[in-house]
Amino acid sequence: MRSEIRGAETADIKGVDLVVTKTLPEPGYFVADKGYDADKVREKLEERGIVAVIPMRRNRKEWRAVDRDFFRWRNLVERCFSKLEQGRRVATRYDKTALSFLGFIDIASIRVWLRLLST
Questions:
Q1: Which of 48, 85, 115, 118 suits a disulfide with 91, CB 3.0-4.6 Å?
Q2: 37 or 21, which is more confident
Q3: Are 2 and 24 in contact (CB under 8 A)?
Q4: Structural contact between residues 2 and 15, judged by C-beta atoms closer than 8 angstroms
């Protein structure tokens, strides 16, 4: 898992560079919500040979098909975030520094992973 802290007013689309870097293993698919639907994002993914599974916004002039069955797997990621936010410390961000907050996100992720292994 890779995480980064951005300002609350920062658009989600600016986090694409964090996911699509050359330092990570090459992903085959990029599954995201409508907030990531932009021509620049789609071009960047196509250059790297990554399949974009992003639904189109309503105001799009040209539509592309989206694999709805594959898009449903995005629910797993959303549930993971929900489990992380069950810890009040993550949801309200009590930590004063970004480093300690990211450290606690790592701890919470390990906790979720261990619970998954024990079931």
A1: 85
A2: 37
A3: yes
A4: no
Instruction: Tell me whether residue 54 is exposed, middle or buried, using C-beta atoms within 10 angstroms of its C-beta: 0 to 12, 13 to 18, 19 or more.
Output: buried
How far is CA 62 from each of CA 38, 58, 95, rounded to the nearest angstrom? 12, 10, 44
Sequence-ordered list of residues with C-beta below 8 angstroms from that of 102, at least 6 positions apart, any chain: 3, 5
**Distance, CA of 66 to CA of 110 (rounded, Å):** 33
**Crossing angle, helix 74-84 and helix 98-118, to 10 degrees?**
110
